[in-house]
Amino acid sequence: MSIFTIIKFYKSVMQQLRRNRRLRTNEAIRSLVREHTITPNDFLVPLFVVEGKGIKEEIMSMPGYYRYSLDLLVKEVKELWSLGVKSVLLFVKVPDNLKDNKGTEALNPDGLMQRAIKTVKEASPEMLVMTDVALDPFSSYGHDGIVENGYIVNDQTCDVLAQMSLSHAQAGADFVAPSDMMDGRVLAIRELLEKENYKNTGIMSYSAKYASAFYGPFRDALDSAPGFGDKKTYQMDFANRDEAIKETLIDIEEGADIVMVKPGLCYLDLVRDVRDAVDVPVAVYQVSGEYAMLKAAAEKGWLDHDAVMLEQIMAFKRAGAHIIASYFAKDVIKLLS
Ligand code: PBG
Questions:
Q1: pLDDT of residue 172
Q2: Residue 1: is its pLDDT beyond 70?
Q3: 200: buried, middle or exposed (CB in 10 Å: 19+, 13-18, 0-12)?
């Protein structure tokens, strides 16, 4: 027996019982040693915008979540700001007659997205405005890119996404958020923004975005479900883990300022992997299907809505997310204040 083995044995015998429960005795000590907290600064709030006036319509598969016309968007944005929310992520529902294969309407300087950006900036000038950049809400096929012979073509799509990003920047967006998973889109966007002197417009890239069935309710919200096939030729295979790091590192090389993992709860392993692998802020998107699941279970009385909601949001913080895009943001902030 070596001296080290003897010391180890002696130590194990002499060691006092570690009473870890001391640190859980009451709320005061638990708060003192709590490792993570939730604040309004953690949230990026997705907002759905529609044409019209006086419209605040509930999304069927997202109870308690609404599409707003621009006039009522003003009210919502002001309320968010007063609650301490400082960033929003805009999505638009485009009328069918304006959709085509190339997403032409996405480039319209007076399009709904461009007007929505201006509306938010007027309502709340300091609010950070991010915009979703992908063709699906504008595409007659409901795909994130241009379709040729049933295939979503990559490079032409990147050109349109760059134009779209420029148009959002010109309307006043602070960040563009490409959510399409084409190869090289971050580079295409960064280059065009630089060239046109939008040097301070940021890119939050949906860098590890999986082909997920959890996006169902979102596609109801925007009427943007793919008309044929699925998104598996561009969004990632949910069986893959290492690939998330590859995608994310490439996006950072191409110029992404913030990277994102999406969906959220089923992908917390990737939030941690990405957080450990990169030196830029990491966002996570708790998507529409995650929201719908909890709402449905709570409606049935099977889960305690608020308690489960907080537990889930905290899980994102614990996993390492700096930014949480969530439809629960307002509920969480109200609950905590
Ligand atoms: C558009 C986009 C989608 C989501 C965000 N941006 C849908 C999709 O990729 O099919 C999903 C968000 C959610 O489900 O909450 N490309």
A1: 98
A2: no
A3: exposed
Range of the domain at 53: 34-336
Rounded Cα distance, 154 and 151, in Å: 9
The single residue of 99, 262, 295, 317 carrying the catalytic annotation is 262
Q: Is residue 330 domain-resident?
A: yes
Q: What would the two tokens of residue 11 be?
A: 């130590």
Task: State the total domains in the chain.
Answer: 1
Mutating to test ligand 1, I would choose from 215, 230, 233 the residue with most ligand atoms within 8 A of its C-beta, which is 215
Q: Higher model confidence: residue 7 or residue 86?
A: 86
pLDDT by residue (tens digit) across 7-23?
776 676 667 889 999 99
For residue 135, tell me if it sits in a domain.
yes
pLDDT tens by residue, 106-151: 999 999 999 999 999 999 999 999 999 999 999 999 999 999 999 9
Half-sphere exposure of 106 (CA within 13 A, CB side): 29
Task: Answer yes or no: is the C-beta of 144 below 6 A from any ligand 1 atom.
Answer: yes
Q: Whose Cα sits closest to atom 14 in ligand 1?
A: 215
pLDDT score recorded for residue 206: 98
Atom 11 (ligand 1) nearest CA: 215
Going by alpha carbons, the residue nearest to atom 6 of ligand 1 is 179
In a domain, 3, yes or no: no
Residue 274, domain CATH: 3.20.20.70
105-116 exposure pattern, b = at least 16 Cβ within 10 A, e = fewer: bbbeeebbbbbb
List, for residues 194-221, the tens digit of each pLDDT value: 999 999 999 999 999 999 999 999 999 9
Q: Can you give the pTM of this predicted structure?
A: 0.94
Q: Is residue 190 in a domain?
A: yes
Ligand 1 binding pocket mutation candidate from 179, 214, 327 (most atoms within 8 A of CB): 179
Based on the residue annotation, tell me whether 317 is a catalytic residue of this protein: no
Place of tokens 């959890």: 214
Centre of ligand 1 to C-alpha 297, Å, is: 22
65: nearest Cα among 220, 223, 224, 267: 220
Distance 14 CA to ligand 1 centre (A): 57
Distance 252 CA to ligand 1 centre (A): 21
